[in-house]
Specification:
mainly alpha; 2 helices
Length: 76
């Protein structure tokens, strides 16, 4: 497994753990800590969403390069 894949799996696990901890803190009425956990969740979510968008753009560019037989592009 590549280094980037391992980091993405860790980010997803952290996001899930943060969601559970945030829900627990909300039930315990610890609003300050829950808001900090929510900020962490937002950061992780936007980070993963940005990586997904980058991958999607790369995939579309690759498909268009194959479609138009553009061999000047390099993908790695």
């Amino acid at each position: 497994m590549r280094h980037g894949k391992i980091l993405n799996v860790i980010k997803i696990i952290l996001l899930l753990v943060a969601a559970v901890v945030g829900a627990y803190l909300l039930l315990k009425r610890e609003y300050v800590q829950a808001s900090l956990i929510f900020c962490i969740m937002l950061y992780l979510g936007f980070n993963l969403y940005g990586q997904y968008n980058f991958l999607e753009r790369q995939l579309v560019e690759f498909a268009e390069a194959v479609k138009y037989r553009d061999f000047t592009r390099r993908f790695w």
